[in-house]
């Protein structure tokens, strides 16, 4: 049975992704910073008939927590087939780049960028043991510098400059990592799941978590001929 670790999976897009990956036959390691909330999420899935899921407590802003999670996973499986870096925060408003607080910017980057990087670094060894390793970095359409340059980056939204910058950096990480593993069996991509109604945006999003999760799952389950180093929604998003 293939395995997947999803960070920030106790709610929202991460939770729905966990559900859909389990339904496809993956054993899901449901990553949650909070043990109680994580156990509640596992219980909810169990009550819906999904048994191949287990909690992994992981706080992506804490290297000690990530290392503990990796050590725990190493006792449970010989290889990790899929890593989905889903954990993320929106940050506090206002966050216009000219006036927003540096403290807020750092907090957003700590989770959305550094969290994904250090989680990947800790689990890359287990991923290398997979026959078809996949990494999905859950990004955002707001990371598109092309869209921002065209004045479309924050249409119908508040200014999410700190968030947008952190996700653009995450996209850069995707490109660099995919380049490092070019010519191997790794498939590494960023996915902007779309403006989804979740806690992150106060449930203002215009699409469901089911719609968003399907996009993440698509790139988490790519075949050997799938793309790598890309940035996608339903199709490629301009960088």
Question: Notable features of this structure?
Answer:
single chain, 239 residues, alpha/beta, Rossmann fold, 7 strands, globular
Q: What does it look like?
A:
The protein has 239 residues and is α/β, with parallel strands linked by helices. The chain has one domain: 3-Layer(aba) Sandwich (Rossmann fold), CATH 3.40.50.720. Helix content is 42%, strand content 13%. The chain contains seven helices and seven strands. It has a seven-stranded parallel β-sheet with strand order 3-2-1-4-5-6-7, with helices on both faces. Helix 4 links the parallel strand 4 and strand 5. Helix 1 crosses helix 7, helix 3 packs parallel to helix 4 and helix 4 packs parallel to helix 6. The radius of gyration is 17 Å and the shape is globular. The model has no long low-confidence stretch (mean pLDDT 94).
Q: What's this model, at a glance?
A:
Helix content is 42%, strand content 13%. The protein contains seven helices and seven strands, in the order βαβαβαβαβααβαβ. Helix 1 (12-23) crosses helix 7 (209-220), helix 3 runs parallel beside helix 4 and helix 4 packs parallel to helix 6 (161-180).
């Amino acid at each position: 049975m293939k395995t997947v670790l999803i960070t920030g999976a106790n709610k929202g897009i991460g939770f729905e992704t966990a559900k859909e990956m389990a339904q496809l036959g993956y054993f899901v390691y449901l990553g949650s910073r909070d043990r109680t909330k994580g156990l509640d999420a596992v219980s909810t899935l169990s009550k819906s008939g999904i048994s191949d899921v287990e909690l992994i407590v992981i706080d992506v802003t804490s290297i000690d927590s990530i290392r503990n999670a990796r050590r725990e996973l190493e006792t449970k499986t010989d290889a990790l087939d899929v890593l989905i870096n889903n954990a993320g925060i929106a940050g506090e408003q206002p966050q216009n780049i000219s006036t927003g607080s540096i403290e807020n910017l750092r907090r957003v980057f700590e989770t959305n960028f550094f969290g994904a990087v250090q989680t990947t670094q800790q689990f890359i060894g287990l991923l290398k043991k997979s026959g078809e390793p996949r990494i999905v970095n859950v990004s955002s359409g707001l990371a598109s510098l092309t869209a921002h340059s065209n004045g479309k980056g924050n249409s119908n939204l508040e200014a999410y400059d700190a968030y947008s910058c952190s996700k653009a950096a995450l996209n850069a990480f995707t490109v660099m990592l995919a380049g490092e593993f070019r010519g191997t069996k790794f498939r590494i991509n960023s996915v902007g799941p779309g403006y989804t109604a979740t806690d992150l945006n106060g449930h203002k999003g215009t699409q469901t978590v089911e719609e968003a999760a399907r996009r993440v799952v698509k790139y988490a389950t790519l075949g050997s001929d799938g793309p790598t180093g890309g940035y996608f929604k339903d199709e490629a998003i301009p960088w």
